[in-house]
Fold each of these.
Amino acid sequence: MKKIILIISIIILFSQNLFSQSYPRMGNPNWVTNDFFEDFNGSFDRSVWDVFHNWCGAGSQDEIIFSWVDSPYTVNQNYGNLYLSARASENYTGCGTSVDFISGQVATKEDFHYGIYECSATFDYEHGSFPAFWLTYRIDCNVSHRAEIDIVELKKKDSDSDLDNNAFYKPIGCGKGHGIEDAWHQTNFDWEDEDPHTFKCVYTPDYIKFYVDNQLLHTYNNNSYDFPDTRENIYLSQQLWQYNGSVDNIVVPQTSIFHWVKVKQFFLAPEITCPDVICTTGNASLDVDEDAYDITWSLYPGSAFTSSLSGTGKTVNNITASGNYNGTGKITFNFKVRGESFSAEKEFGVKGPRYEDISFGVVDSGDNPANQYGGTWVLCPNTTYHIYVHNDLSTCSTSNYSWTVPAAWTQYYTYQNMISINTNSSPGGPISVNANTCCNNNVTIISDYMGTDYNCGYYYMTFTPNPTTSETTVEILKGNEKEKKVMSSEDLQELQNLEWEFDVYDQSQILKASNKKIKGNKHKLKVNGWKKGVYFIRAKIKDEIVFGKLIVEK
């Protein structure tokens, strides 16, 4: 008995793991091939499409109410479109059962697997209309289980119509299949605009997504054994169905127009394996879809390697680093899948981290970040900064840093990966760092250029309160007003001994007040008797002019 319980538990665990696995490499939109496109120009191509003839068609409750018929009245290609029509045909017995309607359905001879399926169509929406763009595997049910994916179905009812998405599982052995509850989704949709709509399905091992006009309607995730996993043929059809079980109110003729159909199939996204850093020699390999062929590889830049720079196949052995290069290397694999060309590449470090793994961080003495423009650090004159070098590559550490900075700067001290400097009057200039790397060498790991910040705002002015009715405190602070930087103790000491002056002007630029030889960074300004309005303050602090705006109210 214990053995039986154990076996059952293992089976349950295995089946759960089977459908819970994730396959993100088989659903990447960057790795697809354009495998099918039909725009219905010219004559109908029977080498591509099969037309169903004398097959019985069921409405609701699986009741046979029409027959598929291959005729110009039901299947007609013209004017760059495929027209599928449902028509009256009383007592038609071609499918072995007497029916009163015939209609058109086509399916591709070719089958496809995981991919992006799209169709542009204008559906007829008369009562009883049931056009569809859908997928199912045209294989003997005794040979394989099958899946059906209904990308779009229109079901016209009395006063409204639905857009349905669905999926079905059909077991091997031709037994009765079942709809998959999580796959079913219904949207009330306005079909009466008579405009074309684009219907799309993204079919992957992990999920199926349904779209109309690129708007996501529903996502069905792989969470059960009956999730579709088979290849699929494309079906276009103008079906009929009886609402409330009656065929009496079905309107015919009705025609749905299919404008184009296309399929992009996913293939296994390429994955390159190689070391993060090649100190002396290393190997690289490509894992790619089994359908890939004509595989070649190349290394860049040529100066980084002394081994062969190109070759064929998925494996590259003995990539040898040049003794005269350090920085970023790159390997590129080119290959073809189903007649289309692709490239995959991966960067790695040569004799140390990649250039892209190393970066600078810059903060002032108050630990406030310096400004950056277009990725370039810009520094203010006469400012103390701590410059850090950051290594984002955890597999190749760096140490023993030595710095080269502009000669006009004052170097205070270095500590581990940081240097403390003052820019003096020349904030811009080149900066580079040498360090020991995981390759047991000492090389330049980063070279960059620091720019000049022309919007430093070395001082700025505040008013408390602002607006005011009688008095305000004018205060000079150090830093940037927009960023409200925290001032260091050195900054505060400097402000206590600051000498400055300011003038006040009204809106007509008439001098209202003048205050000279102010000591310290604060001064009270009385505005009693001033008219209501905006006043402009011009302060001179050392060689810098600072402007402010004060509002007086009554």
Amino acid sequence: MSSRHHIDDFMRGRIIGKIEEGRKITDVAREFDIAHRVISRLWKSFKTTGMCSRRHGGGRVRRKQISRKTVARRLKVGGLHARRPVVCVPLTRQQRTARLQLCREYHNWTEQDWACVLFSNESRFSLSSDCRRQLIWRESGTAYRPENIQEKDRYPTCSNMVWAGIVIKGRTRLHVVANGTMRGLRYIDEVLPLVRLFRGAIGDKFVFIDNATCHRAIAVQDCLDGEGIQRLVRPARSPDLNPIENVPDALGRQVSGRNYPPTNKNTLIHALTEEWDKLPQQLLDNVVQKQQITALERLGVTTDKRACLLYPLVKSCMPEDLLRAFQRGLNFYSGDDSKMRLDALLKFLNTEVESEERINLAMTGLNLTDATSCKRESQLKKDKIFTSVSLLTSSVGAEKLCAFCSRQHEPTNCFKAQKVSYRENKKQERDIKLGKVVLIESEIM
């Protein structure tokens, strides 16, 4: 039985030599125990090329080293991109359970409920920031020149600790913790008076979130209980559940981006206080609202549990007249189920969109969207004074005669109409109505 393997060059030379001696291909194949077609193909290749060595076949080269760019290009085609991983603190099973329990406990809260929560935190700011966002323009290979090196202390000495709190549609003033860190007794004397102001303004539903170690002292807890302030206990190692953790970063950018950055402790305090007052309230409100959705995503809560957050967001984007129509409609749901409220709101919006499309389709079919009607609608929007007479005398395709001076212009633009008293205006309106009724009756007869 013939074997299936590649013939080496030495064997090829012997086969070609046998055939050149005048022997037949059949005899050579029987002598070397190789198939007849292989010997015939080898002899034909030798007569064509004059070589008896084996040619390299097609296909990719085995064990070839591919470049890094090739791998990156293939990954990019597959939808994968190089990104920095999200950094988080290591959590134990008990800490993960506490985070999930907190999320499940408060996932039904509405925007009105979260508007009663004061989020607070302390942050430390220094003159030598460790922010790596500041870039310099330099030539290649000049990284270690003195003008391209920025000196920074590993442990900055000139720094200030500040305390602040945010609430939806409000904030506390920036309190500077001078000469030291925050302790329990100092927290009672300096910070709690600011919290009492919000407690008195919001009422019994006021909730305070501040889970630092010094804030959970027995003296602080007794003081909060005496004031009737409810505290929302945040799980350990969960700074992402407090939305104010993102505010110091924005405040630090504003301070470092000033035209004249602070140079000493006093100017640093002044800059922090001034930039804190300049932060837009909408930014703080978005931080609170978006942080709740982000926390739910990190905890793996499904989409149907976010109705309590999506409902107030969608509702706040609706115009006032559309919101009134929704509250007066049949689809309005006033229960406690957030998902049913969101479903009712989305159903109402879908109905409004379909109705608007039908109206536009009907107006297009009746040829009511010409330039004249568009011009008339834009003119009505610009008018500041609307009267019942103008509504009665305005009609598409008719001459616009003023009811007060019989000229061709809108009654709202009539100088004489602006001086007419209320009684005369009502009498003129009544006469126009009677005239229209008489005209209709005459047409029927």
